[in-house]
Design brief:
Helix content is 13%, strand content 34%. It is built from 3 helices and 10 strands. Strands 1, 3, 6, 7 and 8 form a 5-stranded mixed β-sheet that branches. Strands 2-10-9-4-5 form a 5-stranded mixed β-sheet, with no helix packed on it.
């Protein structure tokens, strides 16, 4: 029996729907890095079981996003995370997975704040991203860039020489991730903040609010929705 936290999410030691947080993190990065540059795909299709992914953001951003999901859907997302792979121009690097993991660890060492609330209730144990129980090293993963206008080409590093449809492997990632339990039909708010560097002058400051409309079991919008 998995006991959910007060905020209604799975604790980091759980294996939601038979998959560990580390494996979910790898799947999240595979989806993220296979997207196109516009990043307007804020919500994934169903990944496995009832789980969908919420998008993060490259670099600093502060915005509110609206998504609608079927009843019974669980949501997995990154509060803050970093990744490393061998993609480079004009030729790929040849680092081992251990070297890539060390690079991801180095990037994560300057993460200074992670915060998440679900319907106003704080997810606890996020106070320090370096010691948080939600800190997760993703299992090794690979991904394939989008055929056109891939996120790797123009958002993450401006690697325009990497063709669409390119397979990249291996890759490593560190981060803080959350898996919610399915939310009740109606309107819900998920708010999360991730900061890299000094909080008074951060290198990266991500502040994302998701307004999530959960459809009724009949598939229609509840009356409080817009």
């Amino acid at each position: 029996v998995t006991v959910l936290t007060v905020a209604g999410n799975f604790p980091p030691t759980a294996t939601p729907y038979g998959v560990s947080y580390a494996d979910w993190a790898a799947k999240w990065w595979q989806w993220t890095l296979s997207q196109t540059t516009d990043q307007t795909n804020y919500l994934s299709d169903t990944i496995s079981g009832p789980v969908k992914f919420l998008a993060g953001a490259p670099g600093s951003v502060s915005e509110t996003r609206k998504v609608a999901i079927p009843a019974g859907t669980a949501l997995f997302f990154s509060v803050l995370s970093t990744w490393a792979d061998n993609s480079d121009c004009p030729t790929f690097d040849t680092n081992s997975f251990a070297q890539l993991q060390a690079a991801a660890d180095g990037n994560w060492s300057v993460a200074s704040e992670t915060v998440c609330t679900i319907d106003g209730v704080a997810v606890t144990n996020l106070d320090n991203p370096q010691t948080s129980g939600y800190f997760t090293k993703a299992t090794p993963f690979g991904y394939t860039t989008a055929l056109h206008d891939s996120v790797l080409q123009t958002v993450y590093g401006n690697l325009s020489c990497i063709a669409g449809g390119t397979a990249v492997s291996p890759a490593a990632a560190d981060g803080v991730y959350i898996m919610t339990a399915p939310l009740a039909p109606g309107i819900h708010t998920i708010h999360f903040i991730g900061i890299v560097g000094p909080t008074n002058a951060p290198y990266v400051h991500q502040d994302l609010t998701y307004q999530v409309t959960v459809l009724t079991t009949s598939g229609n919008y509840p009356p409080a929705a817009t």
